[in-house]
Q: What sequence folds into this?
């Protein structure tokens, strides 16, 4: 074995590459299209809990995107109290390999990738399942992924009204200030969940609860809205699925019974959401195998648990751009 090198992209490299909104969305949508056309391998995420799930845990995501010629494994920590130490709650490493030989190809700081790909999934879900004229967004949560949710939704819908809420006052106000600066729009900060989400066209629930608590009331969701709940601990009522026309997930294998965590975990375990009443995986819609929104009256839901394919697709986009711009380091493997 000789001459094997690995490309290393650190956080500064990823920032310097500065993927555009359209580059992010195109990469993630390409991964979804590959999934919808059965050109991927997805292993359901697994978890490593060092002490207690209330303190934090690691997610391990694994997959192969055949059209890109890459396999990937991402390890991401999710530790809710990291802000007390001046650290982001989620930090990640993405390892990329040749799926034909197993040869290591790259190591990438995937903290920003995790945030971008989550926002892209939210936005692409809305692209296919929300009303085309959606103009009002209610967003719960101010974690790292929240920024990209709002930024990419605004990119696609040119929103007229954006409402945000999170548990800590300083967190929600800081989040709003960042959004106002970057989007050039007034952001409405609310003191409670109801005033944030009632009557909104799009509702995103990205809360950080220590245990499942039904904070988001079903009665607040207006007919025809699009809702994305993806907190690790459920914040929704059991009745939420009762009002939905279409329920879509990123990957049913990661949502089925017997797995921990997730906004609709109890709904699955108690057969409120099943493989039979599931409308589609988003990749099937992107690939044209299943329809997205078909009428203005539909009230639709998209539950995404985090798709390894999106990490791999964004990793590929970063590597391609880095090679053109001469960014990154080459590490000798053997």
A:
């Amino acid at each position: 074995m000789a001459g094997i090198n690995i490309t290393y992209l650190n956080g500064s490299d990823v920032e310097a590459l500065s993927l555009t909104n359209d580059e992010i969305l195109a990469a993630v949508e390409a991964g979804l299209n590959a999934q919808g056309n059965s050109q991927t391998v997805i292993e359901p995420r697994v978890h490593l809990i060092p002490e207690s799930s209330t303190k934090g845990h690691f997610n391990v995501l694994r997959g192969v995107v055949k059209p890109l010629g890459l396999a990937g494994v991402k390890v991401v920590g999710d530790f809710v109290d990291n802000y007390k130490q001046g650290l982001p709650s989620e930090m990640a490493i993405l390892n990329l390999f040749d799926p034909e030989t197993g040869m290591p190809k790259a190591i990438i700081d995937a903290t920003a990738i995790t945030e971008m790909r989550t926002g892209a999934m939210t936005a692409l879900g809305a692209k296919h399942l929300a009303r085309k004229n959606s103009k009002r967004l209610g967003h719960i949560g101010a974690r790292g992924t929240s920024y990209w949710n709002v930024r990419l939704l605004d990119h696609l819908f040119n929103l007229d009204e954006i409402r945000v809420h999170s548990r800590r006052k300083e967190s929600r106000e800081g989040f709003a200030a960042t959004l106002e600066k970057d989007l050039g729009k007034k952001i409405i900060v609310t003191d409670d969940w109801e005033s944030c989400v009632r009557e909104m066209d799009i509702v995103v629930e990205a809360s950080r609860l220590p245990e499942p608590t039904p904070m988001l009331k079903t009665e607040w969701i207006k007919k025809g809205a699009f809702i994305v709940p993806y907190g690790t601990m459920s914040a929704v009522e059991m009745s939420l699925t009762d009002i939905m026309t279409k329920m879509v997930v990123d990957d049913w294998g990661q949502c089925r019974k017997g797995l921990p965590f997730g906004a609709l975990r109890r709904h699955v375990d108690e057969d409120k959401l099943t493989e039979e009443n599931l409308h589609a995986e988003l990749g099937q819609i992107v690939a044209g195998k299943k329809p997205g929104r078909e009428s203005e009256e539909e009230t639709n839901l998209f539950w995404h648990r985090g798709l390894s394919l999106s990490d791999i697709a964004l990793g590929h986009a970063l590597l391609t751009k880095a090679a053109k711009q001469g960014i990154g380091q080459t590490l000798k493997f053997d």
DSSP finds nine helices and 15 strands in the chain.
